[in-house]
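Chapter review: from sequence to fold.
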Amino acid sequence: MVGTQKYIGSIVEYLDQGRFRPGLVSREQNRHIAVLDASGREKLISRDLVLVRYGDRRADAASLAEALSELESERSSLASDLDLNLLWEVTHEQGRSFTAAELAELFFGTSSTAAASVMLEALLNDRLYFVRRHMEFTPREPEQVERLRIQAEKVRMRSDEFRDIQRAIRQVLQGAALDSAVAVQLVAKFRPYIENPFTRSRDLTVILKRRARGRSGRSRVRSSRAPRRSPETTPFCRDRRT
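The token string follows.
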């Protein structure tokens, strides 16, 4: 949590329903501060919700939209590269806790505030790889991760999105045309899966394995049902009799 120092004119990020929201501090009021968002709307929040302060980024009301757009672009790029599974693989045997800034520097190779912010937001929302103690994060034991992963996978299997993706893939494999909106969503799901193996979704992996098993199973059934030729009609047997 950021302290009680003066913030006016600074860009900060505060916690709002599990997400980091950026804003420009326009005024301070005891234990609260007022922040402006990109549209110029002001919101009064508790200082306790402010988790990140960008000391190297200044803005005013006129330049705020551009400044926040640049920040969002940088954060999006970093977030698309972040893989907590890979980070956990690197750190879980070290037997110690880490701050978000330490983990950001380890993974991204930079100590920038934006990198630390992206890492902190991911860690606060993580329920699988790290345990939070105050503002430090300890990698879970492998047995814990596997147990939690199985539980989470069972929940995801029942999700509407999972079923929708399964249905769309089934249509594609059967040669049926997809609705354009569904096709766009499917491409958006598969592009990062194909382009970056380190960020592959376990959901899509499970779906593809299921569909592959289903197709190979049907192929075996079809081949087992194929009519068997009698010895009299096989070329080999006819040649033997002549």
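Two observations follow directly from the output. Confidence is low (pLDDT under 50) at residues 230-242. The longest strand covers residues 19-29.
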